[in-house]
Amino acid sequence: MSLEDFIANFDYLDICHLTEPPPVISKSSSAYHSLHNFPSVHLRGRWLRGVSCGGRPYIRASHWANPQFRLVINSPDPNDPDGFATTVIALMQADRRRLRHRAPRLASIGFVLYRLPAGANPPMPRGFFETNHHIASVDFFFDSREVVKRLKLTPGHYLLVPCTYAADQPGEFLLRLLFDNPDRICESTLERVELSGLAATGPEPDPNYELFQPRLRRLFYEASGESMAVDAFQLEPILNCLLRDDHRAPYSMVSTDACRSLVALLDRDGTGRLCESDFRRVWDILRSWSRLFASFDPQRTAHVTSLDFRIIVEQAGYTLPHTLFSKLVNRFVNVDWRLDYPHFISAMSLITKAVAIFKNFDHGGRAVLPLEQFVEIAMTM
Question: Signal sequence: where (predicted)?
Fold first, then answer.
């Protein structure tokens, strides 16, 4: 067929990069061995609504939330005179064909590549994407099942971000990379729970606590009576009274459910009550979390977006995988994918309680406990 006839009869030309030798190639042929030794990486991921559906780079408010993968190229191609390394990147929308009876539309997908600075430890925060421009990307975002790009990169560390053209388009994807050398690495940057900052050291004590401690004791003893302990219903008016009188507090009300969560967080004996000595820690925790929440709520609406909530959780010292954070979001956000202040307190209490329970049973990074004890613990969360 002549080139003119080909152009006249075909609209698209797809170049296939095979990761496994086809059966028509003999195992004794040189083509089989050259293809069989072609290193490849297969990674699965998800764009989760309210968590990791960030959209293309020009949507600066949410692009940072997309899944991130670290690409490490240690050496150039052996036969490249310019010192470049050839990398083929393919992004495929996964599991779409099994849903075709529901007539789902293919999203417009693509990916972008950033160069990581020396010493960077992905996942990268929002500020990185606001100050750094991507160095490579797909030619166009297509509403096709798969997009492919062949790149020639210099050795170094890169951040690969698969994304959809528009934000808030959930779906699953398969990311495949083909290399010339086996010394190249591509891995997800967010696979396990990590603790830092407040989560590791605890909240900063309130320096003015002693000033209102006499009033606190009076309120506490009036509510507790002879039991010298308060439950969530008794804790609520105490906290609200103190918050209303504290000009430093960004919010003056906590809900009954939020107080239940705070009591469950520090209830060590399962009575559902707190003694006076526990209140100091409750106050410090509430004060620290409230300041974090308020920093993303300048208008004092007592609401933040789910993506802002993700940043707050990270600033509180908890780095969570997207799948785990998605479960947290689905439990506490409203229909507009926003989180109110009382539910924020409940969500933070749940995370903190879960980590504390694991630490109590941790043996080499694993926790093993009887079913009865597990059910008992689950009932308190």
Answer: none
Q: In which element (H, E) is residue 233 found?
A: helix 232-245
Cβ-Cβ contacts under 8 Å for 86 (sequence gap 6 or more): 77, 80, 150, 151, 152, 179, 180
Distance of CA 284 to the CA centre of its chain: 26
Split at pLDDT 50, 70, 90, the class of 308 is very high
The answer to whether the bond into 104 is cis (omega within 30° of 0) is: no
The CA-to-CA distance between both ends of the chain, in Å, stands at 70
- Architecture of domain 30-189 in this structure: Sandwich (2.60)
CA geometry: angle at 189 spanning 186 and 194, to 5°?
150
Find residue 175's DSSP bridge partners. Answer: 43, 91
Rounded CA separation 370/373 (Å): 5
Domain locations along the chain: 30-189, 198-379
The label of the residue with tokens 């959809």 reads 164
Contacts of residue 84, defined as CB under 8 A and 6 or more positions apart, other chains included, come to: 76, 77, 152, 153, 154
Please tell me the distance from the alpha carbon of residue 319 to that of residue 209, in angstroms, as a whole number: 30
Alpha carbons 85 and 136: distance in angstroms, whole number: 14
pLDDT tens figures, 243-293: 887 777 788 789 999 999 999 999 888 889 999 888 888 988 998 999 999
